[in-house]
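Problem: given the chain below (261 residues), write out its structure.
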Amino acid sequence: TQTQQRQRVERVCVWHVQRHTVLFGLPQHLTVGPLTFARNFDWKDDLTLFRHDIEYVNESAQAHNLLALHIMQHFEKETDANTKMVLANEALTHFKKAQEIYPPFFNVAYDIGRVYSAINQPDSAIVAFEYALSLNKDLPDIYLRLGDLYFSKNNFDKAAQHLKEYIKMSPLDINGYNRLSYTYYLLKQYDESIATNKKAISTLPGFVEPYINIAHVFSDLKQRDSSMLYLREGEKKFPSNPQIIQAIEVLQKNVSPSFNK
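Solution.
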């Protein structure tokens, strides 16, 4: 009977929760919680089972979330562009159903943003991530993603705002400093760009990029002596580094070194 089928589907498989703590690249601390799907080894795979059984737990936000995550696992493995788009839209349907059932479901809002990013729809991704951020401000990855998305839209003010927050939360990621300093550079906020790179030097002394970035800014400001000063400092610390050697050679030809971004 349908009641018996529903009872079968709603049996919780705790071992399966532990096995699938990470789905669609989901950070481990964003656990999906108890699943509402029964395990049935007669099915070809979990996705086939979940697609079949979703009708019995159609009002479960977690069930739709889990199904969407499994669909996106197949999306990431798929190589055909048309099939990937079909899978992405199917996943979005279930993520949005989960959000409709339980609007403050942070994981769902976050993953909607990631799906839209994966299919190159930045405007929709921004909306999804901003909503996720309104639910949870403690995940650094959202700030980085929003920073990159706003940068791709040439909204450098918004990009800088989010990248600055990202660095506060992830001060050991050199890519955050590179992105923020370059964003400030494009905004012609040169002092902020230089300050960001100096912060990177003090926080992450093992990276050569900040020296080259500062040299680039000073070179564009026609302050060649200051530019060379930072390159020579970088050379002392990284005497065999090909990036610093090349940057010095480039500057000696009165050309700005390349910005790391």
